[in-house]
Amino acid sequence: MANAGVQLLGLTLAFLGFIGSIASTVMVEWKASSFSGDNIITAQAMFQGLWKSCVSQSTGQIQCKVYDSLLQLPGIVQGTRGLMLSSILLSFISMMVCVVGMRCTTCMADQPEQKDKVALAGGVIFIIAGLLALVGTSWYGHRIAQEFYDPFTPTNSRYEFGSALFVGWGAASLIIIGGSFLCCNCSSQSSGKSPRYPAPRSAGLPGKDFV
Fold first, then answer.
1. Residues 118, 100: contact at Cβ < 8 Å?
2. What's the pTM?
3. Strands (DSSP E) along the chain, which ranges?
4. Residue 87 contacts residue 23 (beta carbons within 8 Å)
5. How far apart are CA 26 and CA 30, in angstroms?
6. Which residue has the higher pLDDT, 36 or 72?
7. What pLDDT does 206 receive?
8. pLDDT tens digit string along 67-104?
9. What is the rounded radius of gyration, in angstroms, for the C-alpha atoms of the chain?
10. Among 20, 179, 175, which Cα is nearest to 101's?
11. What one-character DSSP code corresponds to residue 210?
12. DSSP run (H or E) holding 30
């Protein structure tokens, strides 16, 4: 039988990762302007996200602009959008599945083996969702690093990792760890089953006497 405490811990970690994925997706600081050059004007800082770009002035004024056209966006932005939204959707579906399959709920209480299988399926979906978020953030981060070290990139057009990337990496890790707890806990319960022995033969067989 699966341990309800481990299941609850896994679901909690995955839920925190789910919230972090949503926060990372809506944040604008996916990449921030770099101040590594000597001739960089530090009076303003530029940020770019998946949905809009912002400029922060040294006076504290922030101006943001939402991307006008979807088709004019770079492929990296469109691909990362799809990966992050898919991760959020799968995480939500997995939470609904895990609530049904967890030992601390009354759903399918009369079918414990099927209940554990449902929780296992939820854990697998969580892992897939975490991998999607990890691929999306890592792909975007790789493109930032590639453009930063490109000698043909102008100094005033270089960007560094924004805070949304770190939030996304942490959220993806929590989702994967939470899903792994659900999978390992449900799969280990099969090893605790008591072995089955063949039924003993009848002590008294007809036609034979024992001394």
1. yes
2. 0.80
3. 31-33, 44-48, 52-57, 62-66, 159-161
4. no
5. 10
6. 72
7. 53
8. 888 888 888 999 999 999 999 999 999 999 988 887 77
9. 27
10. 179
11. -
12. none
